[in-house]
């Protein structure tokens, strides 16, 4: 049952993922969560997130921001990165992920999802069959409802870690930090 929430990969940071390798493997679209995945909760796009989006666009990726936040927050971030976005997505509902793929012109086999929460981001991506990459949250200061979810995430990650050990795979991958 807990496997429903397991990511396909657990990375230290969204900035350490070898996106070019995924492009070589045939992935063409990336759906990103924003808060605590790309920047601290509520923060505008910073130099690092702007540079990442530019790099991904130059590589050839279609990019979609998928957020449960209201439009003003998502638009504030997007005003600097200039990609597509869906606000009030209702993650983990399938609708937002499917709409994102439709808008990007990708499908389940050519889309990656990158986010920091198991019960919204990863679970939603898994529900529609998208390759999911969980990242560690950028900032430890979070709203109370997220803090409570994190406690439950620790349980799932404990068993995910056990599974990884049993399979001889890495639990938390530290990327190249590009």
Describe this structure in words.
The chain is α/β, with parallel strands linked by helices. The chain has six helices and six strands. Strands 1-6-5-2-3-4 form a six-stranded parallel sheet, with helices on both faces. The protein is globular, with a radius of gyration of 15 Å.
Structure summary, number of beta strands: 6
* Binned strand content: 5-15%
Q: Can you tell me the residue ranges where pLDDT is under 50 for at least 5 consecutive residues?
A: none
Distance between the termini: 35 Å
Mean of residue pLDDT values: 91
Topology:
Elements: E1 9-11, H1 19-24, E2 29-32, H2 47-59, E3 62-66, H3 71-81, E4 84-86, H4 94-104, E5 111-115, H5 118-128, E6 131-135, H6 144-167
Parallel strand pairs: 1-6, 2-3, 2-5, 3-4, 5-6
Explain briefly what this protein structure is.
The chain has 178 residues and is an alpha/beta fold. It has helices at residues 19-24, 47-59, 71-81, 94-104, 118-128, 144-167, and strands at 9-11, 29-32, 62-66, 84-86, 111-115, 131-135. The chain starts with 8 loop residues before the first strand and ends in an 11-residue tail after the last helix.
């Amino acid at each position: 049952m807990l496997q429903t929430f397991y990511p396909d990969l657990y990375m230290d940071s969204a900035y350490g993922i070898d996106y070019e390798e995924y492009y070589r493997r045939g992935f063409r679209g990336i759906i990103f969560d924003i808060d605590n995945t790309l920047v601290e909760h509520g923060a505008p796009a910073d130099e690092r997130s702007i540079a990442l989006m530019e790099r991904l666009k130059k590589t050839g990726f279609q990019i979609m921001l998928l957020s449960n936040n209201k439009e003003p927050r998502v638009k504030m971030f997007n005003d600097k990165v200039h990609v597509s976005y869906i606000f009030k997505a209702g993650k983990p509902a399938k609708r937002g992920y499917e709409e994102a793929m439709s808008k990007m012109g990708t499908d389940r086999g050519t889309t990656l999802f990158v986010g920091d929460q198991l019960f919204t981001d990863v679970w939603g991506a898994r529900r529609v069959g998208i390759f999911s990459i969980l990242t560690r949250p950028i900032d430890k200061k979070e709203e109370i409802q997220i803090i409570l979810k994190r406690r439950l995430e620790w349980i799932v990650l404990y068993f995910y870690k056990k599974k990884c050990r049993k399979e001889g795979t890495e639990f938390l991958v530290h990327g190249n930090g590009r």
